[in-house]
Design a protein that fits this description.
It is a single chain. The radius of gyration is 20 Å and the shape is globular. It has helices spanning about 15-30, 40-45, 65-75, 90-100, 130-140, 160-170, 195-210, 225-235, 245-255, 265-270, 280-290, 310-325; strands at about 5-10, 35-40, 55-60, 80-85, 105-110, 120, 180-185, 215, 255-260, 275-280, 295-300. It has about 325 residues and is of the alpha/beta class. Helix 7 links the parallel strand 7 (about 180-185) and strand 8 (about 215). The strands form 2 sheets. It has a 6-stranded parallel β-sheet. It starts with a strand and ends in a 6-residue tail after the last helix. The chain folds into 2 domains: about 5-145, Glycogen Phosphorylase B (Rossmann fold, 3-Layer(aba) Sandwich); about 160-325, 3-Layer(aba) Sandwich (Rossmann fold). Helix 6 (about 160-170) crosses helix 9. It contains 12 helices and 11 strands. About 45% of the residues are buried.
């Protein structure tokens, strides 16, 4: 039975949130183990919302020259019984981090020509099955299948909630208000974005035909484009300021629903129990879509999702309302 476990994660925010189902199962199986995770600096702040982790080591992908030496001092010289590369697809950085961990067992999903990094590779359906099914297979490999469930989970602190509620108050949102969070972002990947004018039209529909107030959020560098969508909707909608991810999780927990593209915020919303409506390219739909009972995921073509008709989004919204017992005016 491993006493010291190292998890390696060099991925994106939403991908990490999905992996919490596996982390929770691993903790249940090995309650006395010390579990450390090494992950990218832009995800590290979210790892603090996963109580199953004992220690976080930050891999400096940003400003690596300045932060590499502190990382080396923290990472090397430790002894781990088991190291698991949790990346869903091949990552050379993760492979080298796994090998250099010095762990007796170094485990990954199967990736061709990566044998030098690992002592064991699991033949699971990466890029074919939903990631939660893949993580279930990981859990079964480590005899934790009985402890695995499909629920994403992150926990935020009382301080995070206080900060979120202070932001809401500044936006004119009361704790008991019913509101729909809209995040039309992921603009750095335009093929993964539903069209801006359709988001604007859907926002107008929500404002006119429901009791929910549309509230927008944006990612770094997205404010101008999100403000243009709000203007095009013809609806007076507040836009939240950028906030730490743990505070964002607390903020989203107050929402009645989340509507957006396939982004990290989508998975954070799912993890705090908010029903979601998402627009996904075919691959994202097959592998990453939210599968909680109250959520609706729309599958678009792999090439791009901007061409999905407005009517498809409206049908998805109506289904979301139906699943969650909401009603239109």
């Amino acid at each position: 039975m491993p006493e010291n476990i190292l998890l390696v994660w060099i991925g994106k925010i939403g991908d990490f949130v999905v992996s919490t189902a596996f982390i929770r199962a691993l903790r249940k199986k090995y309650p006395d183990a010390h579990i450390t995770i090494v992950l990218s600096d832009f995800v590290a702040e979210l790892a603090g919302t996963v109580p199953e982790l004992d220690k976080i080591i930050v891999f400096p992908k940003k400003k690596i020259a300045r932060n590499l030496l502190p990382f080396i001092r923290t990472y090397f010289g430790r002894k781990w019984d088991l190291c698991i590369d949790l990346n869903p697809s091949r990552s050379t950085s993760a492979g080298w981090l796994t090998r250099l961990s010095g762990a007796q067992r170094r485990v990954s999903s199967y990736n061709e020509n990566c044998e030098k990094f690992y002592t064991e590779m699991i033949n699971v359906g990466v890029n074919k099955d939903h990631m939660l099914d893949i993580y279930r297979q990981f859990a079964e490999y480590f005899d934790a299948g009985a402890e695995f469930d499909y629920k994403l989970s992150i926990a935020f602190s009382d301080a995070d909630m206080k900060a979120a509620e202070e932001i809401m108050a500044k936006m004119g949102i009361n704790k008991d208000d019913k509101f729909a969070v809209v995040h039309p972002g992921n603009f750095t990947k335009p093929r993964s974005c539903w069209a801006a004018d359709k988001f604007a039209a859907l926002t107008a529909y929500i404002a006119e035909h429901s009791e929910f107030r549309p509230v927008f959020i944006s990612g770094p560098g997205e404010n101008e484009k999100v403000e243009a969508i709000i203007s095009a909707s013809g609806v007076i909608c507040p836009m939240a300021p950028n906030m730490p991810l743990s505070v964002l999780a607390a903020f989203l927990s107050h929402a009645s629903m989340f509507i957006g593209n396939s982004t990290g915020t989508l998975h954070i919303a799912e993890a705090v129990g908010v029903p979601t409506l998402s627009f996904n390219r075919a691959y994202s739909y097959d592998v990453w879509r939210p599968i909680s009972p109250g959520s609706v995921a729309i599958r678009g073509p792999e090439k791009e999702i901007g061409s999905l008709p407005y009517e498809t989004g409206l049908e998805g919204l109506k289904k979301l309302f139906e699943l969650n017992g909401f009603s239109f005016r």
